[in-house]
Amino acid sequence: MAYRPTWQGHLRLSLVTCPVALYTATDSGGDVHFNLINPKTNNRIKMITTDPDTGPIERSELVKGYEVSKGEYILLTQDEINSVKLESTKTIDIERFVPADEIDRVYWDNPYYLAPDGKLAQEAFAVIREAMERSGQIALGRVVMSTRERLLALEPRGKGILAYTLRTDAEVRKEDEVFGPISDKAPDKAMIAIAEKIIEQQEGPFDPSQFVDRYEEALKELIKAKQKGHKVEKVAEPEDTNVVDLMEALRASLGGKAGAAQGKGASKPAAKSGKTPAKSAASKPKARKAG
């Protein structure tokens, strides 16, 4: 299946430029999708765009509006929106190179694949990609996507480049707002020692193929049962896992085989597909030196 690019333009490193295309690296996920149905007729509901004063209106007649005050909008046509053009609308200009561990993982957003767009672009693309790989650093550039200019983190992956959109400072909530109330009291050393042994029992390689959406699988079973006319049985609520005696729970976990079994369950190593940002990024927040 041929993938359609999300964006097409140029990649530029100083005076070296080549045509490139950006492709989404992930699927939306999930096989179970629901529609709204009228149970009396079994018909799928249609969402009709409606003006509260004049009634239904065709989508083709609508324009976008920005609310400047309550009920007051500045109207913009698509042509007017398209008239706003930055250099990054059509060019990813590499502005800076930074060590991967300088970008906190909280800033990493969505992954994309960046590839040369056409045979004539391959030589220049290969030169830029190889130079990036030898530097061992992350390249930073910008691109306009969906009416937003996004910061991009670029790193070599296979024969191409992996591009991650990065969140801005304004998009990331301050951790102290959530972590602030957590006590500074040091935990019991004996409990930590037991917890560390439990972690050792559960160690294993990361194989994403072993992780399936169990909730979606259960939904599929529910749908199959109803399709066959079976009565849906009520499932017991999960047991309350609130821990009363923490030390006793730790000791019981260490003595049990559940942890060890889970660790061995991931014995098949995952295929190596290159360095991931999450693995190389620092565990502690650091100041981002993005341009």
Write the layout of secondary structure elements.
Elements (H helix, E strand, L loop, with lengths): L6 E7 L2 E9 L12 E2 L4 E2 L5 E2 L3 E2 L7 E6 L2 E5 L1 H5 L8 E3 L2 E3 L9 E9 L5 H14 L2 E8 L2 E10 L2 E7 L9 H4 L9 H13 L12 H14 L18 H10 L2 H8 L11 H4 L11
Parallel strand pairs: 1-9
Antiparallel strand pairs: 1-2, 2-11, 3-4, 5-6, 7-8, 10-12, 11-14, 12-13, 13-14
Offer a quick outline of the entry:
This protein has 291 residues and is an alpha+beta fold. The chain is 25% helix and 26% strand.
Q: Percent of residues in helical segments?
A: 10-25%
Characterize the largest beta sheet: strand count, sense, and whether it forms a barrel: 8 strands, mixed
Which CATH architecture of the domain at 7-28 and 83-170 would you pick?
Answer: Beta Barrel
N- to C-terminal distance: 37 Å
> How many helical stretches?
8
The SSE order reads EEEEEEEEHEEEHEEEHHHHHH
Question: Low-confidence parts, pLDDT < 50 over ≥5 residues?
Answer: 258-276, 278-291
Count of DSSP E strands? 14
Using only C-alpha atoms, the radius of gyration works out to 26 Å
Report strand %: 25-35%
Query: pLDDT average, as an integer?
Result: 85
Q: Going across the major beta sheet, what is the strand order?
A: 9-1-2-11-14-13-12-10
The CATH class name of the domain at 7-28 and 83-170 reads Mainly Beta
Report the principal-axis shape: extended
Look up the CATH topology of the domain at 7-28 and 83-170. Answer: Ku70, Chain: A, Domain 2
Structural class: alpha+beta
